[in-house]
Amino acid sequence: MYKEDDFLQLSGIQHFAFCRRQWALAYIELQWQENVRTVEGHLLHENAHDAAIKEKRGDLIVVRAMPVHSKELGISGECDVVEFHKAEDGIPISGREGKYTVIPVEYKRGTPKSNDADALQVAAQALCLEEMLCCDIPYGYVYYGEIRRREKIEFTERLRYKVKDLFAEMHKYYSQRYTPKVKWSKSCNACSLKEICLPVLNKKVSVKKYLDGKMQEEESD
């Protein structure tokens, strides 16, 4: 069990799964830059996180910006949306009649990814909710703003174990204040931290050649 002072940000698992160096730059070195993708993502999350919007439609209760944590994983954060569906095999909720099943919903600006970064984030939310509410959550959803559709995420044992393994690795990096070296990929081109990370330096380009090129660019301006 982790102490609260050692908690990591839940949302970091998505960055860590995408690129360990990106996560370390943002969450250990506290460096960040905005681009169009990150700004659009923030706007989508602001709408999802509007706690002033409370919904109850029949047997459905929608809670926004719900704080969650897990002492076992050593993380804390917020769920964009948590849906409580009335069901006989659910759990009781204080101040409400009946029992409810719990479904986390994460909001993303783009389209479904080829990797499992988004699935890992909503699965981490589910593990927090299971620990806090003493319940089982078999699945959740990721809503993609670009296609305006939900994708169902099954919380398999493989996905659960991967969430736990990644957070254990993140805690190790964080305690050592370790930032991995550059490892260039095509994904670097869309990363908001590429000007800080400088992945181009690892594409068989020497530091001297890179700096000489930058100096020539400045002289020509």
Low-confidence stretches: 35-43, 204-208
Measured between the Cα atoms of the first and last residue, the distance is 56 Å
Sheet-strand content, in percent, reads 25-35%
Helix content: 25-40%
| Form type | globular
Please identify the structural class as seen in this structure. alpha/beta
How many E strands? Answer: 7
Determine the number of helices (DSSP H or I, runs of at least 4 residues): 7
Largest sheet: 7 strands, mixed
Q: Could you report the average pLDDT, rounded to the nearest whole number?
A: 84
- As a whole number of angstroms, the C-alpha radius of gyration is 20 Å
Helix and strand element order: EHHHEEEEHEEHHH
List the helices and strands and how they pair.
Layout: E1 8-9, H1 12-18, H2 20-27, H3 36-48, E2 55-57, E3 60-70, E4 75-92, E5 99-108, H4 117-133, E6 139-144, E7 149-154, H5 157-176, H6 194-197, H7 207-220
Parallel strand pairs: 1-4, 5-6
Antiparallel strand pairs: 2-3, 3-4, 4-5, 6-7
Helix pairs in contact: 1-2, 1-4, 4-5
